[in-house]
Design brief:
Blueprint lengths: L2 H10 L7 H22 L6 H17 L1 H12 L3 H27 L2 E3 L8 E9 L2 E5 L7 H12 L3 E5 L5 H14 L5 E3 L4 H7 L6 E5 L2 H13 L4 E4 L5 E4 L5 H16 L12 E5 L3 H16 L3 H4 L8 H10 L3 H5 L1 E3 L3 E2 L4 E2 L2 E4 L6 H4 L6 E7 L4 H7 L6 E5 L3 H10 L4 E4 L20 E2 L5 H6 L1 E9 L14 H12 L2 H14 L1
Parallel strand pairs: 3-4, 3-6, 4-5, 6-7, 8-9, 8-15, 9-14, 13-14, 15-16
Antiparallel strand pairs: 1-2, 2-18, 7-17, 10-13, 11-12
């Protein structure tokens, strides 16, 4: 059951009976939050030594438990060990090591220039932790989407309460049992459970909520956060398009298709917020594109998807059925040009390509989050911009083109969390660029220094001295003081002094 469904059901049943277990959950959550807040007040998490120790401990956790993590990911999602390392373990290692190398520089005060009018004065920007952070992680990348936000939160000096997804139970159990053995258990706590636990968590005041998941659930999180004016970062998703402009060079054409196939099916069987949701291509090139898509699907995943053990499975029967329902529309089924077979016993769905399914069908109005790839044809590739703009803002736009004018139009005339030209997914691993959405695809950003900033408040500090005074700022008022104040807003310090000198000479 999805969090949103669970919360709604719990709310509907409140007047029917009171579950004693809910009272116990509420008491446990309340005690956990209280302990975290008390520990934060001690100031221990603010020191550079504590932060570095925790980051090193996270590195140790990953290094010493790589096999256990891979096993948990296989149990929950059927991820191959190579995919598990590429998409989750390696990402955590990279993020933790980068933060360990940089955290001392990130947390140092930064000088800020002062207007000459305030001379003598100096200013600085001082990053400070927000306090108690609540992190909801997602089931499709249950390790990296739990640990990467934790890295940012502890780098910034916060205490953390992490709620792993109950839909990835093996990974949730791993985090609950392993994190306390490596990290400061007074500062980082794990709470497991379903929607009932989430409901109780959202009753409490936190200093920051970081949520990864669907827009439907995000609206519940944001509504709850608003009651306490709690800032939120929402990492959501949306229908991420790929624009496929004609590439006259055959090797470029082939490379682009290869990257599309890898991005669509090679990352959790399409169960990824940054995965390609559909491809836009000119009609005259669609046949060539589809034939090459089929070729790479067969090369990467073989003819027997179960025996190859390369393709991840669908997370559970509920999501499996949801995906199967997308193909029940006869017009959608008729648009299938490759694949479409399912294996309910093993929760596998074959990589499936569709050509021009109905645009009002659910497969084109909702995020697919599975191994279906609609190919949508247009007369001219420039029409893809209007098509994208007719839908909610996506988390990412992928565009394969060498046309620099077209690139500029995509960047300037569309809105998305990111735009990636001639590649896919790599933006998630690039810590020097922020990762996050816009509009329905998310609020806020993280990764690298951007994670540190997300979990920090940059406090402005100004130092002045009790010597020179700006007398015209005080009553009683007269025309001379008004002129001084007017000029102070318009000129720098030296220009102001010259003007005032001229005024005095005239008087």
């Amino acid at each position: 059951m999805l969090l949103v469904d669970t919360v709604v059901e719990n709310n509907n049943n409140k007047n029917q009976h009171i579950d004693p277990r809910m009272n116990n959950i509420g008491m446990e959550v309340e005690e956990t939050v209280r302990e975290l807040r008390q520990y934060f007040k001690t100031g221990k998490t603010k020191s550079v030594a504590w932060r570095k120790n925790q980051l090193q401990a996270l590195l140790n956790l990953v290094h010493e438990n790589e096999d256990a993590i891979s096993k948990a990911l296989y149990q929950d999602l059927g991820k191959h060990p190579v995919e598990a390392y590429r998409d989750e373990i390696g990402g955590v290692e990279k993020s933790a090591q980068s933060s360990l190398n940089s955290v001392e520089k990130w947390m140092a005060p930064k000088k800020s220039s002062m207007p000459l009018l305030f001379f003598p004065a100096k200013g600085e920007l001082l990053p400070e932790p927000l306090g108690v952070v609540l992190i909801f992680s997602s089931w499709n990348f249950p390790i990296v989407l739990a640990l990467d936000p934790i890295i940012g939160a502890i780098s910034a000096g916060n205490v953390v309460l992490i709620k792993p997804s109950e839909q990835a139970p093996a990974c949730s159990s791993f985090l609950a049992n392993t994190l306390p053995r490596y990290l400061d258990s007074n500062a980082v706590k794990v709470v497991e459970g379903g929607g009932d636990v989430c409901e109780k968590l959202l009753l409490h005041k936190f200093d920051k909520i970081f949520f990864t998941g669907s827009p439907r659930v995000a609206s519940i999180v944001m509504t709850s956060a608003a009651r306490n004016l709690t800032p939120v970062t929402l990492e959501l998703g949306g229908k991420c398009p790929a624009i496929f402009d004609h590439l006259s060079n055959p090797s470029d054409f082939k490379m682009a298709v290869k990257r599309i196939v890898g991005a669509k099916w090679g990352i959790c069987s399409g169960q990824a917020c940054i995965g390609i949701d559909y491809v836009l291509v000119e009609e005259k090139y669609s046949s060539e594109l589809i034939e090459l898509l089929k070729k790479f699907v067969r090369r990467f995943y073989g003819d027997n998807m179960v025996e190859s053990k390369v393709l991840s499975r669908i997370v559970n029967k509920q999501h499996f059925q949801r995906l199967c329902n997308l193909l029940k529309d006869p017009l959608v089924a008729a648009s299938i040009v490759h694949g479409g077979s399912v294996d309910e016993a093993n929760l596998f769905i074959e990589p499936t390509i569709l050509l021009d399914p109905p645009l009002d069908a659910e497969i084109m109005t909702e995020e697919i989050f599975g191994p279906f790839l609609p190919v949508i044809t247009v007369n001219k590739i420039q029409e893809s911009i209007e098509f994208i703009n007719s839908k909610p803002k996506p988390l990412a736009i992928y565009a394969f083109t060498k046309d620099e004018t077209f690139k500029r139009k995509i960047v300037s005339e569309t809105s998305s969390g990111s735009v990636i030209f001639n590649d896919t997914l790599v933006q998630f691993l690039c810590d020097t660029l922020p990762f996050g959405g816009v509009g329905q695809s998310g609020i806020g950003r993280y990764h690298g220094k951007f994670s540190f900033d997300t979990f920090s408040h940059e406090k402005a500090v100004m130092h002045r001295y009790l010597c020179l005074e700006i007398e015209p700022r005080y009553p009683p008022w007269n025309k001379f003081k008004l002129e001084f104040i007017r000029l102070a807003y318009r000129f720098n310090y030296f220009g102001l002094a010259l003007h005032m000198l001229g005024l005095r000479k005239q008087n």
